[in-house]
Amino acid sequence: MNLGEIAGIVCKKIFPIPEETFLGKSSGVAICTLSSIDLLKEISQSDIMEKIAIAARLFSENKGIDELVRFVNQNPSLHTIIVCGKEVSGHKTGHALFCLHKYGTDHTNRIINSVSPDPILAVSKQEIANFQKIKLVDKIGQTKLENII
Questions:
Q1: What's the chain's average pLDDT?
Q2: How much is the pTM?
Q3: Which of 50, 70, 111, 141 registers the highest number of CB atoms within 10 A of its CB?
């Protein structure tokens, strides 16, 4: 077990955060709120859910991004992800996601140019290539739903 995995276990015990994902009624667009749980809840209770496939948060630059990439690969009709909300302090998951989209990973599966502490993925190069075909919309830092819509 590496230091990042140990830190993740400790964080889950000390700061339990509910795993929240909200399914919408459309299939082409997703919203990722990074660490903004209140924004995620606001989106889940709004009419925007009629126009999106899923709204979810993203806390980690490794397992979280792996999950997101797998979701994209399992949902081929998804063509756009709006990345909004506040960055995860210290992890910079939004930055890592955009680096993955633009640069991919190196021979150790580390996200190229990411400033995150442990941006090592488990997904395949093919899954990453499929992920890179979708459009990412950069609204990082934006927490007002009316500005995201």
A1: 87
A2: 0.86
A3: 111
